[in-house]
Design goal:
Blueprint: E1 6-10, H1 15-31, E2 36-41, H2 45-51, E3 57-60, H3 70-90, E4 94-97, H4 104-112, E5 117-121, H5 128-133, E6 139-142, E7 159-161, H6 176-183, E8 190-195, H7 202-211, E9 220-225, H8 231-239, E10 247-250, H9 256-262, E11 265-268, H10 272-281, E12 285-287, H11 297-307, E13 311-313, H12 320-336, H13 338-351, H14 356-367
Parallel strand pairs: 1-2, 1-4, 2-3, 4-5, 5-6, 6-7, 8-9, 8-11, 9-10, 11-12, 12-13
Length: 372
């Protein structure tokens, strides 16, 4: 084994895939400083937006989302060629799959060549790529104990419940007053954070704007993370109100330590990384799971928080007015009931595993045999 082992992190396309990998790479940098982390990403711009500030190396894979088309199979073939070259030239000590279509080729070929492989599986239900890769890996790191119910019995011994890795800065949130100043928000007001994760969520955006077109809660303001393609539309939506709630609309930020430091309540999708951050930071939430997945895995993530008292769950009806009709009474209750919000925050915090990145990094060190 080289004194400077290389570890591939395969995945990307969304913050939900990349941020857990970044968190693990940060932990590895602390406990194994001689290691080199290399991210094998998609060509989506969000990947470089996330990775550039970290300083980690990245290589863009030709792979595109799976479709029964020449373009997909051509990208799959080109990605195979790239990975064969990378495995030969860089000789990684381990390949960690981050989920999604950009993890498949790297993990499969590494396993075939005897390179240790592992997966991060942060959703309750493994996605298609993780289900396909699970027989090929040695370990799968999970956020929820319920994941064992959704994998074949013969693969359950590979599951390690570590929690979903979150970045180190989220383990020590920003000073609330300083964060308020950074965002230009009023420190005397409570803050509702609205987020659809790194890509934004059009139906969540529209529902919240619809609610606040007629609902003006006293003593509250909104920090709305709209998504890179939705910022202008969301900002315009708030301005249609004759008396808009105090608000700040931001297309995207990676500074979630500031965001969660000021959050008294959140309206959010229930992707795995979002759930991990909400629980680690103890933020009470109203969750609208992404409604377009066949397996509805975000709904099971949200249900896990709801059943433990950390969140309210609303099924996304894909229509702004229908969602607003369900959302407004819950918002109205929670915005006026401080004890209920505090109880939810406490319940969410009990679920949190802020040390997940360190736990996964420690397991990876064992897999490559450097723990002795």
């Amino acid at each position: 084994m080289s004194d400077a082992p290389i570890i591939f992190f395969a995945g990307g396309g969304t913050g939900g895939h990349l941020y857990p990998g970044v968190a693990v790479a940060e932990s590895l940098r602390k406990i194994l400083p001689q290691a080199r982390s290399v991210f094998l990403t998609t060509g989506r711009p969000i990947d470089q937006v996330i990775l550039k500030p970290t300083g980690f190396d990245s290589i863009t894979q030709p792979i595109v989302p799976p479709q029964w088309s020449f373009r997909f199979w051509n990208s799959w073939r080109k990605t195979h060629g790239l990975l064969r070259t990378l495995l030969k030239d860089l000789r990684p000590a381990l390949v960690l799959g981050l989920g999604g279509y950009a993890a498949g080729v790297a993990v499969k070929l590494a396993a075939r060549h005897g390179v240790p492989t592992a997966l991060i599986n942060p959703d309750v239900i493994p996605g298609k790529a993780n289900r396909w890769l699970l027989p090929r890996v040695r370990k799968a790191f999970c956020q929820f104990e319920e994941t064992a119910e959704h994998v074949p019995a013969g693969e359950r011994s590979k599951l390690v419940v570590t929690g979903c890795p979150i970045r180190a800065d989220l383990q020590h949130l920003s000073d609330r007053a300083a964060a308020m100043a950074n965002w230009g928000l009023k420190p005397e007001l409570k803050t509702l954070v609205v987020t659809g994760a790194s890509q934004g969520a059009k139906t969540v955006n529209e529902a919240v704007v619809e609610v606040f077109s007629t609902f003006r809660p006293s003593g509250w303001q909104v920090l709305h993370l709209a998504g890179q393609d939705h910022g202008e539309a969301v900002a315009a939506g708030y301005q249609k109100s004759a008396d808009p709630i105090p608000h700040r609309v931001v297309p995207f930020t990676s500074d979630m330590a500031d965001v969660w430091a000021i959050a008294d309540l959140a309206v959010s999708r229930s992707g795995a990384s979002s759930c991990a951050e909400l629980t680690a930071c103890g933020v009470p939430s109203i969750l609208l799971p992404y409604p377009f997945h066949k397996d509805m895995h975000q709904r099971l993530n949200a249900q896990a928080l709801q059943e433990r008292g950390g969140a309210e769950l609303i099924d996304d009806q894909r229509d702004a007015k229908a969602n607003a009709q369900r959302l407004q009474p819950i918002l109205q209750t929670l915005m006026t009931d401080d004890p209920q919000r505090q109880n939810m925050a406490t319940a969410a915090k009990k679920m949190g595993r802020p040390g997940a990145a360190d736990a996964v990094a420690g397991e990876l060190v064992k897999l490559i045999g450097l723990d002795r």
